[in-house]
Structures
1.
Amino acid sequence: MNDTMGRYRAMTGHRLFWPAAVLVVMLAANTIYRPGFLSIELKDGHLYGSPIDILRLSAPLILVALGMTLVISTGGIDLSVGSVCAISGAIACMYISRQPDQDSLPVVLTALAMAMGVSLVLGTWNGVLVAVIGIQPIIATLILMVAGRGLAQLITQGQIITINSDPFRAIGLGHLLTLPLAIFIALAAALLVAAFTRRTALGMIIESVGGNAEASRLAGIRSGRVIFLAYVLSATCAAVAGFMMTANVSSADGNAVGLWVELDAILAVVIGGTSLAGGRFFLSGTILGALIIQTLTTTVYAMNISPQTSLLFKAVVVIAVCLIQAPAFRARFTRRRSSAPPPSPIADKPKEQVPA
Amino acid sequence: MTDNRPVLTMTGISKSFPGVRALHDVNFRLLPGEVHALMGENGAGKSTLIKVLTGVYDTDAGAITLHGEPVSFAGPMQATAAGVSTVYQEVNLCTNLSVAENIFIGREPRLLGAVRWGEVRRRARTLLARLELDLDVSAPLGSYSLAIQQMVAIARAIDIQARVLILDEPTSSLDAGEVAQLFRIMRQLRDEGIAILFVTHFLDQVYEIADRITVLRNGGLVGEYTTTELPQLGLVEKMIGKELDVLEGIEEHSRRDLAAVEEGTPLVAVSNFGRAGAVEPFSLTIHAGEVVGLAGLLGSGRTEVARLLFGADRPDGGQVTVDGRPSSLRTPAQAIDHGVGFCSENRRAEGIVADLSVRENLILAMQAARGWLRPIPRRRQDELVDKYIKALTIRPSDPEVPVRNLSGGNQQKVLLARWLITEPRLLILDEPTRGIDIGAKTEIQKLVTQLSDGGMAVLFISAELEEVLRLSHKVAVMRDRQMVAQLANDDTLDADRVMQTIASGSHGEEADR
C-alpha cells in the first residue's frame, strides 16, 4: 500500500505529469465525441489522421516556443516572434516569386539563407536593445512586434505573395518516412536547442542569470552575452517557423503570418512549467504545452464549436490547464479531501530530457 | 505579569522538506512578559519553527495553542491578526515604498475605503518617535540603511496590537548603539506584558536581555533553561553538542607575522582607488598569503572597498597593479580573471541562485570563468562538489537539493565553496560569519587561517573586532567612508586600540591618500 502510494506520488509529482495528463484527457474527450479520432491510416505511402495533423500543425508553434523558453528563462520575453515569422516568410516568398524557376533547389536555399540572415539581424536588434542598452524586454521587443508588421508589408509591397515552388512547399507539407517533414524539422530543432543548452553550460548559465541576475554577475557571468544570445536564438527559431507557416499555404501575407503566435508561445512555455519570472526552463514541458494548444485548436474544429464561442471555449480550457498545473491549487484540493501532505512543489527531476 | 500560564505553546512539532528533516517532535512555550531566546546552530530549525508558528509553513505533526486555545494559522496575516507579529532575519519590506507605507501596508487607516494618508504619516511618526527614530516617513525605505530598515520592520510589528513578538536575528545588521536602542524597546515591550521570542547568534546579547533560553539542535529540542541556571559555556555546549576544543584551538593561534608575508611584489596593489559617494580614494597592498582585516562600523565603507576591489562597482580613478603589472579591475569577470573571489555579505540578493541546485551553485563561478562553451565534465563536477560538501560539512549533503532549501549558514558555506573551487589568489570575504552559529563560525575562521598558510591572500571584513584581530596580519580601519589607518597586527594591537582608531580617526600610521 505504502509502496503504491509512494509510486503514485512520485508520478504525480513529476513536473511533466499534469501537462501530459491534460493532453491525454483532451485526446480522450475527442475520441469519445468522435470514435475515429485516434485512427491513423496509410494512404499513398503517407500516414493520415488527426494525431498526425496535430503534430504537423503544432510544429511552427513548437519552434517559436523553444526560442521563447530560453528568452523567458533569462527573465525576459520576446513579443516580436510573430513579426519575425512574417518577415522571414515574406523575404523567402518574395525572392522565390521573382525567380524564373521556382522549383529550383538552389533558388529555395538562397531564399531561406537570405531570410535567415535578416532574422539574425532582427534577433541582434532585440538583443542589443535588451542586453546592451538595457531596455525592459517587453518594451524592447514590442518595438519590433509593431514595426516588424510594417516591415513585412514593405517587403511584400502590401500584397499577398503567392508562389509555386515544390521544394519550398515541402517544408510545410512534404513527407519523410511516411510522416510530415514539419514534424522532423521541429524535432530536429528541439534536439539542437537541447544539445546547445544542456551539452554546454549555456542552459545552466541562462537559468542562473534568470534566477538571480546580480548574483550571477558577481559570480563572473557576463550576462549580457547570454541574454543577447537568447534573443538571437529566439529570432532564429521564429524564422524557421515563418518558413513553415508560409510553406503551408504557399503564400506570404505580411498581416496574417504568425499573428498572435507570441501569445501562444508564451502560453506553451508557461504550461510547460517554466516560470515567467525566469530561472529554470523545461524544453520538454514547452513541447507538451505547444501540443496541448494545438490539440485544443483541433478540438474546437473537430467538435464543430461555433466560431463565436470557440475563443471563449479555449480561454476556459486554458484557465483550467493553468490551474491544474499550479501545485498550490492542487494542494488546496488534496488538503481538503485528506490529511495527507500536499505533493512537493519542487520537481525532483534535476536534468532536462528531450522527448523522443 | 507574574501569570505563569504560557501565552503560547507548541507541542510535538515536526516538519520535513524534500531531503531535509527540519523539525522533529519539538516542544516550545512562551510566557507573557518574558524575553525568550531561541538558540541553535545553523540548520537547527530555529527559522523553521518560527515559520511554522506564524503559518508560513504547515506542520507535518504537532499542535499550537495561543492563550490556551488551539490555533492553526494559514499565513502570517492570520498570525498577525491573532497578535503574533514577526520581524524576520532578512528584512521583508518593500524598499520602493515610503517608510510610512511600509509600516501600514495592508492595514492602512481608511475612511469610506479611501486611505487616510495624513493619518498614516502622523501615526508612523508617532510610532517611530517611540523608537526614538527621526526619519522622513515619506522617503522611500530604500534610501535608509539596512539597520534603519530593520528598525522600521520592528515598528511595523509593534504597531499591531501584538501579544507575541518574534524577532528573528534582528541584531545581525545593527551596530552597538542600535542594539542598545533595540534592547531598550524590547524591555519596554516586555514590561507591557508582551512575550518576545528572540533569535540571535550573539551570546552576549542573550545574557543581556533574555529571561529564558530554548535550545534546538539538528531539528530536535535539547531543552529549556532559565538564563541564570545556564552559563555561557554550557549553552554553547548544548548548541553544538560537543566540547569546545575547536574554539580554543583558534584562540591559541599565535599572532600573524606581518613582515614575513609582506615581502616581494604585492599580489594586488591599488592607489588612489575610490568612488564618489561610496568611499574616498584609498591605497592598499595585499601580498600572497596575507590576511588583511577591514574594521569599521556599519556603513563606514567596508563593503564599498570590497566591491571596488572586485569590480562590482567601477572606481572613479586610481591605479591597480596585479603582480606588479598595471591592470584593471572594472568588472567582476575581469577581477575573477586575475584570481579574485568575493563572497558578498548579502547572501540572498548577491550570492546564491535560489532556483539552482547546490551542485550548480558550487560550480557557477568556475563555469563562468571557463565560458559556457566549455562545460565542466559531469564527473569532474561531482568530484569537486563532493569534496567541498565534505570539507565544509554542508548539510544536507545531497548536491541536487535546490539551494533555497538549505539554512543560512549552509548557504554561506556553499558560497564559500563556490569561490574555493576557483582556487582564487585573493579571496574577499564580506561578513562571512554574520548570522551563522559558533560551530560554523569557527570552521570558517580555521579555514581562513589554513588558506592563508597555503598562500592565498584574504581580505576579511567583519563587524566583530575579536575575529578580525584573531585572523589578520594587518588591519585597515574604515571611518566615515575613509580608510583612516592601516595597523600591523603585532603585540601592541588590541581591540581597544582599533576601537580608538575607529572613534578618533587617527592612531598608528595614516594611510596615504
Note: The longest helix of chain A spans residues 105-133.
2.
Amino acid sequence: MQFSKHPVTEPHPLNRLRWLCRRGMLELDAWLMRFLDVRYTELSADRQAVFADLLYQDDMDLFDWITGECVPPVEFEDMVEEIKTTRYPR
Amino acid sequence: MSAVKTSIPKRTFDAVIVGGGGAGLRAALQLAQANFKVALISKVFPTRSHTVSAQGGITAALANVSDDNWHWHMYDTVKGSDYLGDQDAIEFMCRNAAAAVYELEHMGLPFSRLDNGKIYQRPFGGQSQNYGGEQAIRTCAAADRTGHALLHTLYQRNIAARTQFFDEFFALDLIRDQDGYVLGVTALEIETGEPWLFEARATLLATGGACRIFRHSTNAHINTGDGLGMVLRAGLPLEDMEFWQFHPTGIPEIGSLITEGVRGEGGYLINKDGERFMQRYAPNAQDLASRDVVSRAIAQELLAGRGCGEHGDFVYLKIDHIGADKIKERLPGIRELSMQFAGVDPCVAPMPVTPTAHYMMGGIPSNMHGQVVTPVRTGPEEAVPGLYAVGECACVSVHGANRLGGNSLLDLVVFGRAAGIHMIETLRENPIARPLPEDAVETSLARLARWDKRKPERKTERKPEHEPQKTGTETVAGLRAEMQQIMQAHCGVYRNEALLKAGLEKLSAVEARLPDATLSDHSKMFNTARLEALELENLLPIARATLVSALARTESRGAHSREDHPERDDEHWLRHSLYFRERDQLDYKPVRLKPLTVKTFQPKERTY
C-alpha cells in the first residue's frame, strides 16, 4: 500500500527522511539508514525524490526487492541496486 | 469534561491507544466498531510496526493437518513457559485461538490454503499432540508474511471503522490523578515538535518490546519499550523482566536473523576448531534442538574460548556442503542477508552467527482482560483504573519464562480483542471524564525542557572513562551503545551473580552520566536526536529492571539461565517478579496455576 499522507511534492528535510527510515524490520532500518548516511546527500535532486518515494513503499515489498525475492518496479530498480551495494566506509 | 486548562493543545476521546501494531489495532477496532471515539497514536505509520517481522504464523488448534485440540495447545504453552505462565490466561488464549483465526479470515486475511481449501498449517517447535506426544502441525500462515497480512487487514478495518490515527506521534507520559486513575497520555507530534494532551476515559498501551536494550537484537530500531518507560515513571511495576528470548543464530552486530530453516536444510554449527559442537550438547536433536538449547550451547562455546573471529564472539553456521544450486533455490533470501550484512556468500563460506535478543517475555503486568494490575495493600493484582496493556509490552502472562513460536501473534489478537471488550464496559460504566490534575502535563514539559538544555559554550576536555565527565560531553548515542554493550556482556544468555553485579555497577555509572548528555540538534521539526534521547530515557530503566530481576532470581528457568544456579527451583521461584523503579526493589506475586475450567498442569521437568 502506498501512503499519501505526506506526498513527495517537495524535497524532504534530512531529519524527516531519517524518521521515515525507521521501519518495522531491522534489516530495512539498516539498509535505508546506511544509504541515507553514505549516499543520499550526493544524489541529484531527481534521485533524492526517488529515494523519498521509495520510503513510502511497503515494508514487505522493500524487503523482497532488496533480498531479490521479487523484482522491484522499474522506477525503483536502480535505487534498490544502489541500496544493496552501499557500504559504510571502513 | 474537565475544566482544567492546559498550556498545550488538548484532544478528548473515549479511548486512546498507544501503538499501532497488531495488538493496538485489534483493540482499537473493537472500540471503533462499537462507535466509541478512538485515537490511535503511533510513532511510525502503523503498517510499519514490528508486527510485520512476525513472518512464521499464528498458532491455533484447528486440526486441519494433524489431529489436534486446544487442550494440547494449552499443555504445550504451559510447558514451554517452564510453568511460569499463568494457566488461566493460557487457557483463555488457547480456547479462543480458533475463533480468533476464523475472525481474521472473515476480515479478509489471506491465509495460505491446503488442497482441500482449509487454512494451511505448519509445524513449529514445542508443538505436540496428546500432551507431549507426536509433533503437532498447528501454526496457520499466510505464506511468509503472516504478520504483514495481519497488520494490513486490521489497519484497513480500522480505517473503515473510523479509528482516528495520529501517525508519527511519540507518547511521552501517562496522566494519572491522585486516586490512581489514568486519564490519558501526553505525546509529541514528531513533525512539529509540539506536545499534545490526549484525554481519554480508557488508555491502552500496545507499544511492543524493548530488545534494543541489547547490543545484538533481531528487533527493529523502534522497539525501545516506550510503554514500559511510561509505566515505570507512573510508579507502576514491571513483571518478569529477567526473561528475554535469545534467537541462537543472528548475524553479529546487525542482528539480522538466520532462520532455523538453514539448519532444517542440513546446515550445522562449528566452533573455531571446526568442531560440530552441537553433537556434545544435544546428541539426538543436534543442530535442530530448541532455540534455548542451541543458544546456551553457543554461549558456552564462546565462554570456553572456542568462538571465532578476532574477539571470539561468534560461531559459524555452515551450509555450503549442500551445494550452491540448492542454496540459491531454497534459501535465496538468507543468502542475500548474509552477503549484505556479514559479507559472506554461504555458497562458498560459513556464516558468522551469535545468540541475539529476540523477544521480551516480561512487561507491564496485566490480566486476561488487558487491565494493568499492581499490588495494592494485600491484593497482589488490583486493576489500575483506566489503564490497559496488550501485546509484547504486556505480561499477561502467557509466555512465562519462554515463548513458543506462533503464540505471539495469537497473544496480540486474542488479548487485543479482550481488552477492547473490557474497555467498552469501562466506558459505559464511566460516562463522565474525571477532572485532569492541575499538573497533568508538567512532567512531560519538564522532560522536554531538559533536552532543550544547550551544550556549554566552552569545550571541556574529556577525562578518562572512570573519572566523572564535565557537563555536556555525553551523547545519547554513546550512552545507548554502552548500555547495550553492558546488557549483552552481563545479562545475555548465561548469567551469574558476579557478572550481574558488575553489570549493575556499570549500568549505574552510565545512568549517572545521563544528566550530562545534551543534544546536538535543537530544531523542532522531525528532531530525531530528541526522539532518540526520549527513547533512551525509556530503555535505561528497562535495562535496570532486567538486571535487578535477573540478579535476584537464583534459579534457571526458561530463558533465564544462571550458571551458579543451574536448576529450576519451584519451591522458591514459582512466582512472578515485580520491579518498582522508585525503590529500585522487587516484590513477588504467585503464578496463577489454576486454569479457568480444566485441571492444573503440575510443574514437571521440561524435556523435549
Note: The first helix of chain A runs from residue 14 to 20.
